[in-house]
Amino acid sequence: MDYRSNAVLTYVSILHRNTNRYFSSLLEKHRIGSGQQFFLLRIFENEGITMYDLAKLGNYDKGTVTKAVKKLADEGYVVVSVDAEDKRIRHLKTTPKAIPLIEGLYQMRDEWINKLLDPLDDATQSKLLDQLKKMADESCENLETFLNMQNSFFSIPEETEACAEGSFVSKPYFHKQKCTCV
């Protein structure tokens, strides 16, 4: 098990970093990075999606979504509109300026995936996809369990906050969170 635990994370990390470098190099002239391409495609595929639903769709935190959407809006690729009934909700739509970029992103993505999968036969590709999905689902379940535990796997001290009276109140290091699976 020793060699596998490190190898799995190493190989996944290499794939992730190389994919980000690939997209970043191709998107540089459009003034966005690899981090925004996921969000732009999901907004295009789900016109009017809320920022909350976009976060759930990709298993991202609200801060990451906010930062990516701001960059896309600043570059003129998406429009953010406030919900008529609930001012806290933001709806996202792509702009006409985004359409050529989106078409290019689909092409870039397909070419990259084909290059990665080309050495594998169809049966191996199918099995790989199934196994990656199982691993992703398992990681979501394990992370959810971990985040909801009272005591963490590691011994991490609790943070303390000063109260108005000058005493200190313990604040749990981990807060209950829900990890949405892909």
- Total strands: the figure is 5
Q: Please, what is the average pLDDT?
A: 84
Strand content: 5-15%
Q: What is the succession of H and E elements? A: HHEHHEEHHEE
Identify the CATH class of the largest domain: Mainly Alpha
What's the overall geometry?
A: globular
| SSE-based structural type | mainly alpha
Give the CATH superfamily of the largest domain.
Winged helix-like DNA-binding domain superfamily/Winged helix DNA-binding domain
Output the CATH topology of the largest domain: Arc Repressor Mutant, subunit A
In DSSP terms (H or I, runs of 4 or more residues), the helix count works out at 6
Secondary structure: helix percent: 55-70%
**What about the largest sheet?**
3 strands, antiparallel
Q: Can you tell me the residue ranges where pLDDT is under 50 for at least 5 consecutive residues? A: 160-177
Strand order of the largest sheet: 1-3-2
Level-2 CATH architecture of the largest domain: Orthogonal Bundle
